[in-house]
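User: You have something folded?
Assistant:
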Amino acid sequence: MPVKTLTRAEIRDAIAESINFPRHRAMEILEQILEQMIVSLVKEGELKLSSFGSFNVRKKSNRIGRNPKTGKEVMITPRKTISFRASHILKDGVAKK
């Protein structure tokens, strides 16, 4: 089953239609929301959206990985990743559909 990607344009159109805003204003709102989410993750290391879930910045340390093509071991450098944990309300909503 192919995965459906929800685009910013689709979200923008849904916002514009539901609150009767021009599309350009709805896109500005969406961009501000996403920017605030990024700022919160950078500043606090976590973001909790009530009734939706929480995002956390995780730090991964050095580790040894393997190139699947060649089988050769390589050092993977430390990096930050984001994890998401869905709220029980989101999980229940998805399970009912």
About this structure: Residues 50 and 87 are 8 Å apart (CA to CA). The chain is about 45% helix and 30% strand. The two ends are 17 Å apart (CA to CA).
